[in-house]
């Protein structure tokens, strides 16, 4: 972001503390506040009529909440909440963000380029969930989380991982043992440690990479891929 574009936002920006499972965007409710994460990971989650949840996308400090606001919508059918603690976010009123975007084509273009990478990510998730094994899906998802965390520890429960990749908890537990057997990760209660990222990338195959490459090509350096 250029200094000129930042100057349009800075007077209206504040910093907020974020907690685990904190709701950033409530489904089918007016979006009043936009969050630009400074750390941690947020999940965008869809629910069916039975209340079952499926993650449709994630973002960390590379992105922001409530992309629909910039696409002309005041609300979304999806919840967004913190899945990995991250400390803080820069927040801005949705109206002030719209005003700044309307005043600056370069700011609008930058934020829309991010939305494009997020759309590519959601499309990749659909393909992965439809056509890939649990092992491939879990490897992809762990890589995506690894890209957005400092260090190699990812603090998540098996139950949460199962919900995020639309799998059974027992299947996730078994798959974590398989990935651990490869030497790719170390799994313990509530935590996965990435030990050898190259092995995790091998397990993910072509399910991982296009959204991250798009971000690097159109916005800025991103991720920890050995293929960068």
Tally the helices: 8
- Cα gyration radius (Å): 18 Å
User: Which shape, going by the Cα principal axes?
Assistant: globular
Average pLDDT reading: 91
The parts where pLDDT drops under 50 for at least 5 residues are none
Total beta strands: 10
Proportion of residues in helical segments = 40-55%
Distance between the termini: 22 Å
The strand order across the widest sheet is 2-6-4-5
Say what oligomer this is.
single chain
Describe the protein's architecture and organization.
The structure is a single chain. The protein is of the alpha+beta class. It contains eight helices and ten strands. Strand 9 and strand 10 form a beta hairpin. The longest helix has 27 residues. The two termini are 22 Å apart. The model has no long low-confidence stretch (mean pLDDT 91).
Task: Lay out the secondary structure.
Blueprint: H1 3-9, E1 14-18, E2 23-25, E3 33-37, E4 41-47, E5 53-59, E6 79-84, E7 87-93, H2 94-103, H3 105-131, H4 134-147, E8 153-154, H5 158-164, H6 169-182, E9 185-188, E10 191-194, H7 197-204, H8 210-218
Antiparallel strand pairs: 1-7, 2-6, 3-7, 4-5, 4-6, 8-10, 9-10
Helix pairs in contact: 2-3, 3-8, 4-6, 4-7, 5-6
Task: Characterize this entry briefly.
The chain is built from 8 helices and 10 strands. It is α+β, with helices and mostly antiparallel strands and 228 residues long. A hairpin with a 5-residue loop joins strand 4 and strand 5.
